[in-house]
Write a structure and sequence with these properties.
With 707 residues, the protein is mainly alpha-helical. It has a domain at 574-706. Helices cover 73% and strands 1% of the residues. The protein has 29 helices and 2 strands. The protein has helices at residues 12-48, 70-83, 98-125, 128-168, 181-210, 218-243, 255-258, 264-278, 284-294, 296-313, 317-325, 332-350, 353-370, 375-384, 396-404, 410-435, 445-456, 459-477, 486-504, 517-532, 537-572, 586-603, 606-616, 618-623, 628-643, 650-659, 661-670, 676-679, 681-706; strands at 6-7, 10-11. A two-stranded antiparallel ribbon has the order 1-2. The longest helix is centred in the first third of the chain and has 41 residues, at 128-168. The radius of gyration is 32 Å and the shape is globular.
């Protein structure tokens, strides 16, 4: 369907899936920008018109009489007081005191005069300029309020559209890809069962919600119906894929090996759904998906970060940065260390290690291979490239931790994150340098300097563009780049970079012979034809980036949603009750928690894992005497070790996805007959680095505290 049905030179898939996802992502960027813009408009209004908050709405005319005749009103009140006769009053009322009543009337008159003066002055201050300004300001405020109420629905739309996209393109994350007919059949069966469970659960949740005797808000009603329609469509697509196996599937296959091709989300869904159905809680998964909606802003940011990664992938920025290091002709081991250390910065800005591996992993692998790195080392560095930056500002994972746990702040976590980053960088530098088969070589600085300076020149425009864009946001919107503003600033920044790269292709416009109306008209006509035919580089680049983004968002958000559900199983089954709530020895507590956190990291996505740990394990650590900041730094390192550890090894799965199965196969052939270390270096190097780092981060602070 994607290849045959086209409209306006765009595929049906791009119209049906990529365009709605693009609109949702742009809506979120505009929504977050509107909050910053509204705050600045309020400040601007206050600076221009003192007391602007009083001018935002038309004042109400007071109904009192400022020219009231005090004597006449006093006489009237006295007459009314004397004529009141209450037959049920057992005691005679106190006689009215004219003096007190006069003072009260005078005070009321003074207040009335002030109200009329305020009304008159405020009305006079509401000039046409104020009316225009406040209309703009209140419109933006209304849009922001609407956006906040629509965020949950936007997230549900994104999950369903992108989840169906990942299913349609068979892009869900699994331990090994589907190759044989048996792989496709087993994976399709598992996804059919998972889709049926999801549909049954959200339908049951709707029945429970509407039969509870409590009014269901319009927003939640829309969500319920959206889940049912969305998962119903996914179920139908699953039935189709179950019935029809791709024609290019290799015949045969092993049933046992095919289990590895089952998407992880489907396995999680079957486990959690089976538990909830067995315990009579059929609405369980639906309830936990709804809980995910309560953190809609954070999960929408996940989608934005994936989009950021795909836009970054299509810029030349990464290539330009790599060119800086080419003149030094570094040894492969040394270049791997430099690349992984530098990659920590964009990793922090793309939200999670997996997103960065998807975005730039292919380029990192190619550059390391070009420098002469053995395949095993290049694969290890690619998988590791997204691991060191998760503790640096403004990583979304740390923001979620601080949002869910009042015991820690982002400043505390990011402050210690720098120290953990330096530790892991040193460890990753030491191990490959010690185990390298070649001597550590590097071009002399005096020889490399001229080429290095030349390589810096193409980077200068990017530095200027980045600086100017960030300055505009900072000065105009007071939105300086940090963990809170990064999700809505970075997409705009990358779009500006893409526009620059497109404009750089039009150097012919600046030639003297081309500065004429005829050339400009011809060039504009050709640009319009390119845009209409889907060949325009800017529109095409954004469209392709968004198209790729939808599959990745679907795979990640479905995995996150079902991870939250698995966390619900752990919580409801009271599995954590098997773990002591407190330990007499903080060393024993740390050892047990480290093992538990690594296991969680092996089988769950980072965001779902953070939610689970926050709800179940964190309090045990605090009660056992482990400082909250210390515990969460251990958690982050343990998670990264888990993502690099079999059997799932999520970062290795994503690395294999971006470099291709053939490179992994060649890496195995390349090291056949070598020592155990070199045959499994792509797994052992990241494992050893993070394991040593975890041991140091977990236990050295405890040792220091006891000295």
């Amino acid at each position: 369907m994607e290849q045959t049905v086209r409209l306006g030179n765009r595929s049906a898939y791009e119209w049906v899936a990529a365009l709605p996802a693009f609109l949702v992502l742009v809506f979120v960027v505009i929504l977050n920008t509107s909050h910053a813009l509204h705050a600045q408009l309020l400040q601007l209004g206050e600076n221009i018109w003192d007391g602007y908050f009083q001018l935002r709405n038309d004042p109400v005319a007071p109904v009192c009489n400022p020219a009231m005749d005090i004597d006449s009103e006093l006489a009237r009140l006295i007459r009314e007081a004397n004529t009141q006769d209450d037959d049920w009053d057992l005691f005679e009322a106190e006689p009215a005191d004219p003096q007190i009543m006069r003072q009260s009337l005078l005070a009321a008159q003074t207040q009335c005069v002030q109200q009329h003066e305020f009304y008159s002055q405020t009305s006079q201050r509401i000039t046409p300029a104020v009316q225009v300004f406040r209309t703009l300001e209140k419109s933006i405020a209304s849009f922001g309020e609407f956006g906040l109420t629509a965020q949950r629905i936007m997230l549900a739309v994104l999950v369903l559209i992108c989840g169906m996209t990942a299913l349609f393109r068979r892009h869900h994350i699994a331990i090994r890809p589907m190759i044989t007919a048996m792989d496709y059949r087993v994976a399709a069966t598992a996804q059919l069962v998972a889709s049926a469970i999801l549909f049954y659960s959200v339908y049951s949740f709707r029945e429970v919600a509407f039969s509870a005797g409590v009014d269901v808000s319009l927003q939640h009603s829309i969500l319920h119906n959206l889940w049912i329609a969305g998962f119903g469509s996914i179920l139908l697509l699953s039935v189709y894929q179950f019935l029809f196996i791709p024609k290019d599937a290799e015949p045969g296959g092993s049933f046992l090996k095919a289990q590895l091709s089952v998407p992880l989300y489907a396995t999680m869904c079957i486990i959690s759904g089976g538990y909830f159905i067995a315990t009579g809680h059929t609405a369980g998964i639906g309830i936990y998906l709804n809980q995910m909606m309560e953190l809609s802003q954070l999960f929408l940011n996940v989608g934005l970060y994936v989009w950021i990664g795909m836009l970054l992938k299509r810029t030349e920025l990464a290539q330009v940065v790599f060119n800086i290091f080419r003149p030094f002709k570094m040894a492969p081991e040394l270049l791997a260390v430099v690349v992984v250390a530098i990659a920590a910065i964009p990793t922090a800005y793309t939200g999670a290690s997996g997103i960065f591996v998807i975005a730039v992993g292919g380029l990192i692998y190619a550059e390391l291979r070009r420098a002469g790195a053995r395949r095993q080392l290049a694969l290890a560095a690619t998988a590791m490239s997204g691991s060191l930056g998760v503790v640096l500002r403004p990583c979304l994972l740390v923001v979620i931790i601080a949002a869910l746990n009042n015991e820690v702040t982002t400043d505390q976590l990011f402050g210690w994150g720098v120290k953990v980053f330096l530790l892991t960088t040193v460890l990753f530098a030491g191990i490959p340098l010690l185990t390298g088969r070649n001597s550590i070589r590097m071009e002399k600085p005096t020889v490399a300097l001229p080429e290095f300076i030349q390589a810096l020149k193409p980077l200068i425009p990017y530095i200027v563009i980045i600086g100017l864009t960030l300055a505009v946001y900072g000065l105009a919107l007071n939105a300086w780049l940090d963990e809170f503003s990064a999700p809505f600033i970075l997409p705009v920044l990358l779009l500006v970079i893409l526009i620059y790269e497109r404009a750089a292709q039009e150097k012919g416009l600046l030639k003297r012979e081309n500065i004429n109306i005829e050339y400009v008209e011809n060039r504009l006509e050709k640009s319009w034809d390119d845009l209409r035919d889907g060949n325009d580089s800017i529109e095409k680049t954004i469209r392709e980036a968004t198209t790729e983004t939808t599959g990745h968002i679907g795979a990640l958000l479905m995995l996150m949603g079902l991870s939250v559900s698995i966390g619900g199983v752990v919580e409801r089954a009271e599995l954590m009750s098997m773990v002591p709530t407190t330990f007499e020895s903080v060393w024993l507590a740390m050892a047990l928690l480290v093992a538990l956190l690594v296991v969680i990291g092996m089988v769950m996505d980072p965001y779902g894992a953070v939610i689970l740990v926050s709800a179940t394990i964190a309090s045990i650590a605090y009660d056992s005497g482990i400082h909250p900041v210390h515990f969460w730094m251990v958690t982050l390192v343990a998670f990264e070790l888990g993502y690099l550890s079999p059997p799932v090894a999520l970062n290795h799965l994503l690395t294999r996805q971006v470099v291709g199965e053939e490179e992994v196969r060649l890496a195995k052939e390349e090291t056949a007959g070598m020592s155990f270390w070199y045959r499994y270096e792509r797994i052992l190097l990241p494992l050893l680095t993070m394991a040593i780092a975890l041991a140091i981060v977990a236990f050295v602070p405890l040792l220091i505290s006891e000295l």
